[in-house]
Amino acid sequence: MKVNLQIPKGEQFRSFYMFFIIASMQLGVGLIGIPRILYLKAGHDAWISILLAYLYIALLLFVMLYILRQYENTDILGVQTDLFGSFISKVLGTVYIVYFIFYILSTLVTYIQIIKVFVLPNSNVLVLGGMLLIIAVYTVFGGLKAVIGITFLFFIVSTWLFLLLIEPVQQMDFLNFLPVMDRGVTDILRGTVATSYTFTGFEILFFIYPFVANKEKIGKPVFLGISYFTCVVLLATNIAIGFLSPAQLERRIWPVLNLFKIQTSPIIERLDYVAIAEWMMVAMPKVIILMWCITYIAKRIYNLPSKISVYASASIILILIPFFNEHFKIQHLIDNVSMVSYGIVYIYPFLLLPLVILKKKIRKNKEGK
Amino acid sequence: MRAVKLLPFFILIVLLQACLETRQIEESAIINTRGVDLIDEGEKRMIETTIIPYIFDPHAPDMTSLLIGRGHTIKEARIEAEKQSPYPLVPGKISIEFYGKEAAESGILPFLNTLVRDATVSDIMQLAVTNQTAKELLEVEQESVKLNRTEYLEDLMKKEVKKGTLPRNTLEFFTRLVQQVGIDPILPVIDVVNGKPTLTRAAVFREDRYVGSISIKESFMANLLRQRLGGAPLDVGVPLENYLDEIAYQGEATEMEDTIFLSLMLNTGKGKIKIVDASSLTFKADITMKLELLETSIPMNIKSEDTSRRFERDIEKYFVREYEKLFAKLQEVNSDALGLGRKYIASRKGSKTTDKEWMEKYQDASMEFDIDVTIINFGAID
Amino acid sequence: MRPVKKQANQVDFPLSIDGLKNKLETEILNSQDLSFTVYKQENKQIAVFYIPYLVDLAKIEQQVLSKLLDVQIDWTMDSILSEIPLSSGEAFYDVKTIIDKLINGYIGLYGEYENAIIMYEIGKAEKRQLEKAETESMVIGPQIAFTESLTSNMNVINWRMNTPDLAMEKVEVGKRNPKETRIIYLKSVANETDVNTMRQRLTDLDVDMIEDIQMLKQFILDSSTSVFPQFVASELVDRSMYAIKQGKIIVLVEDSPSAFIAPSTLFSFFESTEDRYFHWGLSTFVRFLRFLAAFVTLLLTPMYVVATTYHYELIPSQLLVSLGESRAIVPFPPLIEVLLIELVIELLREAGARLPTKVGQTIGIVGGVVVGTAAVQAGITSNILIILVTMSALASYATPSYVMGNTIRFVRFPLFILAGFYGIIGLMFGICLLVIHLVRLESLGRPYLSPLYPLRLADFNKAFFRLPKQMQNERFLSYRLKDKQLFNKEEATERRDIDE
């Protein structure tokens, strides 16, 4: 496995799109439930937890970019190959594939559950899962260009959902935020930890970095991307805290959808139905990018043609979907995925950093001699 | 080529879709209005629901009909009522739910539970209370109202909410206040008066239990402390003796009276509750009202600014009196409809005040009202 | 005067007149059409032969025969060539070429026992005059349409854009019956890669023959599985001129009265050249109206299916009653009802298009009014659906491109079915697939959705709305043209003295 990659010009894309990739990777079904999870942990001071999470992720991204910049043009697999050798790198790549498959699975089953509760109670999970996977497979076959295009377009098209928040904002009760700093530091930190599942997604930087055409400008869109998402989470959480009473917020599983429920329009009375359908465009880019990522890793470490890896991963996910048909099973899945994400996403880059620096020093010394 | 390869998936979807059950609009009995009563059947207490659904039948003269069912739970009662309907009863379009006196007094949270849990129910459906049984009310409504009856009651209450004389009575707002510590909800009361459903008073709740009723004017006053309002008509009585010079024409009938009644329109008004002292539980409400004078019961010439000021002072006095009466009444029924508790809790850092604790304190709370009235115009004449 | 050259290969002459006649009659397929006249002068014989319906007989009389018979000239090749006042005279030596020329409207003269046959082009092409466009219509602006004659088409283009910069490359397409095809673009503006791609695709084309430009278009598409048109085809000269000016490439084919424009984007199908002739505010409004119409066409009836089959909650309360009452008498599920009515509308459209104009109009009115009313009264369909279907049909005709309008209507059918099978989720799934398809589509290797993706905000000015003229100083940047600027903005907006 080569450390540095040569990417043909036709497959590169401008760093501008990194904003949409990072933001879309973080947006998803996690956002719908995050206000409640945060509220349970940190109360109405959840916004402090969110800001702390943002700062941690900003630091993390800085470290990730630092690691990648030590090489000419590489991804995490190249870095691992350089540090640990080919075999361990392959093992670690496989871990990533498995993690991504379960991540996609958790996203899909959550979305399917929402559809079943809110829109189509009698629908078949396999059919819904099949439809969502067809979208992913069809896009991934279009190559990275189509993947980024869909990410970008779905992002733009789904921004109208913010309009649905106008009515709840007007009916917010600001007394719900008082008194400030009601909870202790431990509660707020627990809130920060609880955001982990929702905030993951920026790890895609490790894989997509070599495809960026103007790498020197990558910092700004990446940080804007996580800032955008942080703002969205802040907005959703604070509106939910202001609009719903504490007892309501503690019991509603998907508070964001409750916010959508009070907005009506003269043509379509229940916009929450439309919002849930539209959420397909919010949730799918994540699945699509991860699916692309799986094929990319499989191609890089096993030299597997993308056709095989796409069909294989899609089939595995489709087969697994019916097993997660209960609310608590899904909750377990999400908990397990976020447990793994602590290691892979939130801690691993910090472990890599000293090794990369060490390796660089050794190399320099060799060259010096 | 790739599209062709996706074909098996499409076929799969088409084949599997047979599992999906449709809810065609003409094959559903879409519930429009629902009433909930508690009745004693022998020794057991049963829930009785009265349901008005839309049943679309091209040959029937009426689109709505009345279905009645009884059961231990609201769901059971609905299934019972469904036996009288040719199509399944679906709750996605309930626009109003009425609670009979007994049901409301026993607490309506259990009834709301099914509505909240079912995601198809609209959050902006309205809730209302009646002093009779809901069944009686709905029966009268079915017979007496000749207008578009399905929306009659809906618009009856919406109109008042829009004016601000009633606080919002939507499901979403009610559940929010019920579960909020330190504030209690208000709902409209609809009774049969002269054989027609009429909005008579407003119901005051202690948590989810109907504990007393206040007039529509009082409900306006309570609402003014919650939000900025405008467009509500007000009637105020001021003592006649202060204005003897300004009377333009004194008819015989008015000679006997000692009050002038003013008909006013609220241009903008807002109120705010403040804590004066948390330990002694003293609160203060600052209320400002900008009013337009529409009518006086005795024709008057309002020539000078001084007269206008006198009017304003008298109106202020009137409202202070009314507010104090309202507060006393609410304290008596132990309902914090003004939301003092919210202010109190917001000021208490680090301790979670429970509803029970606050209710004990509420009895000792005292409140003063500071009202500032400005009359901004007198119509086309002065 | 042209010297008569001798060709080295295969000389069939000299021949006797009879010999020539025999030879021609055996070689020409439709020999009964051949007019073969022999004139005598002293001891010499001269044969004049042509196919009457391919040549201009009056011209032959005037220019050839009168000269040949009146003036006492020597009937030798040189003298004939110099005396007859036509410039296209040429000598040919083998019968194959001669027959080829004959069927292309040439007339042949042969003096007995000469070495070659002299041929003149006196062809007569049945061609129509420049006329107003029929299939596309504009209210204001030049309405001249292309005709079947490539020469006159090229003439019109040259006449409207008289610059040496205008390249008109010639490519022959078709194996059996090569057709002259022209790639027309502005040399200093058009993207060279695009021109190369187009040339490559045309020259690589391995087809027997092409009848029309629409066929050629089908052969060189980027994706043949897509129902979306990938090149704008237009018979309006104005539209092609605008495209050339913007740095695009247009292709013309002999005998075909329209041109196609490459590369095209999805949004260029919603563009009418007329937009340029209106005030920018007006044309922006009209442009948005068209996009809105496309959305209405695409989503209105599927939403009806969704709302009446699965999600009655979506219907506003006031509408619920009337919708429910009109649905109650219909015996079919909504999906079948919609498919039925949509098919009727498509039938009406198709019948109207195939029939002569006057009959077509009658059919449209009879079908629309009578069938619609009757269907509602008979309880086959609900009256609200009739309104929706009519609205969406109307909206689909607001698209300036007929092909695109048809495509949008066609794409709705899968959406109906998905909506009927899986409600609003199915509909959304269909929309997602549609968007993905459009993202993957290319036109001449350029993204179909540009300037939306890849995003280029400067081009929104042309694709989605129009800004005042002085701000439209740049060409379509997404195509990476050689010359991006149309004019200098500073100079155009510079303030001048009052005295000037």
Protein model, in words:
- The complex is a heterotrimer of chains A (369), B (382) and C (500).
- Chain A is mainly alpha-helical.
- The longest helix of chain A has 42 residues.
- The radius of gyration of chain A is 21 Å and the shape is globular.
- The two termini of chain A are 27 Å apart.
- Chain B contains twelve helices and 13 strands.
- Chain B is of the alpha/beta class.
- Chain B is globular and about 85 Å long.
- Chain B folds into two domains: 191 residues; 145 residues, GMP Synthetase, Chain A, domain 3.
- In chain B, strands 1, 2, 3, 4, 5 and 6 form a six-stranded mixed β-sheet that branches. A four-stranded mixed β-sheet of chain B has the order 10-11-12-13, with helices on both faces.
- Chain C has 500 residues and is α+β, with helices and mostly antiparallel strands.
- The radius of gyration of chain C is 31 Å and the shape is elongated.
- Chains in contact: A-B, A-C, B-C.
- Chains B and C meet through helix 7 of B and helix 9, helix 10 and helix 14 of C.
- Please name the fourth-level CATH homologous superfamily of chain A: Amino acid/polyamine transporter I
Q: Strand percentage of chain C, roughly?
A: 5-15%
- Strand order in the sheet with the most strands of chain C: 1-2-4-5-3
Shape of chain A: globular
Report how far the terminal alpha carbons of chain C are from each other.
58 Å
Distance between the termini of chain A: 27 Å
Class based on secondary structure composition and strand pairing of chain C:
alpha+beta
Can you give me a brief rundown of this structure?
The complex is a heterotrimer of chains A (about 375), B (about 375) and C (about 500). Chain B has about 375 residues and is α/β, with parallel strands linked by helices.
Helices and strands, with pairings:
The complex is a heterotrimer of chains A (369), B (382) and C (500).
Chain A: H1 18-26, H2 30-42, H3 46-69, H4 76-84, H5 86-118, H6 125-140, H7 143-157, H8 166-170, H9 185-194, H10 196-199, H11 205-208, H12 219-243, H13 246-251, H14 255-260, H15 271-302, H16 306-320, H17 327-368
Chain B: H1 2-5, H2 7-16, E1 29-41, E2 44-54, E3 67-71, H3 74-82, E4 89-90, E5 96-99, H4 101-105, H5 109-117, E6 126-129, H6 134-144, H7 149-163, H8 171-178, E7 186-193, E8 196-206, E9 209-214, H9 216-224, E10 233-239, E11 259-277, E12 282-296, H10 305-333, H11 340-347, H12 355-362, E13 366-377
Parallel strand pairs in B: 1-4, 1-5, 5-6, 12-13
Antiparallel strand pairs in B: 1-2, 2-3, 7-8, 8-9, 10-11, 11-12
Chain C: H1 17-27, E1 35-41, E2 44-50, H2 57-70, H3 77-83, E3 90-92, H4 95-102, E4 106-111, E5 117-121, H5 150-160, E6 166-173, E7 179-186, H6 192-203, H7 213-219, E8 232-234, H8 237-245, E9 249-253, E10 259-262, H9 280-309, H10 317-328, H11 334-354, H12 357-378, H13 383-396, H14 402-440, E11 442-443, E12 446-447, H15 457-463, H16 489-493
Antiparallel strand pairs in C: 1-2, 2-4, 3-5, 4-5, 6-7, 7-9, 8-10, 9-10, 11-12
Helix pairs in contact in C: 9-13, 9-14, 11-12, 11-13, 11-14
